[in-house]
Amino acid sequence: MAVHLSMLLAGLIFGFGLALSGMTHASKVLGFLDVTGNWDPTLLFVMGGAVAVTAIAFRFVLRRRAPVLAEKFSLPPGGHVDAPLVAGAALFGIGWGIGGYCPGPGVALLAAHGWETWVFVPSMLLGAWLHRAVKSSLGGGGARAAVAAPEN
């Protein structure tokens, strides 16, 4: 129960941050990508703030033997960049650039107005389902390796 409540709280904080920063508006993302027109650097500051907080917080979090609400950390193996990772990142970026939405704002906007969100979210879920189906049919697992936290 505590795990689910912490996920709900984290999602609410994330959604609030997206709304506060204006990142739930596709025009903000598309304005950032419009480098030859009326460029809007807002997204750069939001991402920079997120990266800075993460870089600092992870230093403290990963010093623990285990997360607060789990038995061990579940981290991807470091330093491994392969073709599926690059292809997935490219597809994500292309979709984000075309629509101006990514999963976080898309889900947050389900509570707001606009038919675009009701097209985006089911399409995103269909894409995730297709990915899983294709990956399992090709024999790929997809589960991330559990890695113990570094000890000090």
Describe this protein's structure.
The protein is globular. The longest helix has 23 residues, at 115-137. Helix content is 62%, strand content 0%. Helix 2 packs across helix 4. It has 152 residues and is mainly α. It has one domain. The relative contact order is 0.13.
Task: Spell out the key features of this protein.
152 residues; mainly alpha; 6 helices; globular; disordered C terminus
Write the layout of secondary structure elements.
Elements: H1 2-21, H2 26-33, H3 42-61, H4 83-99, H5 103-108, H6 115-137
Helix pairs in contact: 2-4
Mean pLDDT: 84
Helix content bin: 55-70%
Helix segment tally: 6
What would you call the quaternary organization?
A: single chain
Q: Topology as H/E string?
A: HHHHHH
How would you describe the shape?
globular
Number of domains: 1
| Global structural class | mainly alpha
Rg to the nearest angstrom? 18 Å
Task: Give the beta-strand count.
Answer: 0
DSSP strand (E) fraction? under 5%
Main β-sheet, in a few words? none
- Poorly predicted residue ranges: 143-152
Give the N-terminus to C-terminus distance in angstroms.
31 Å
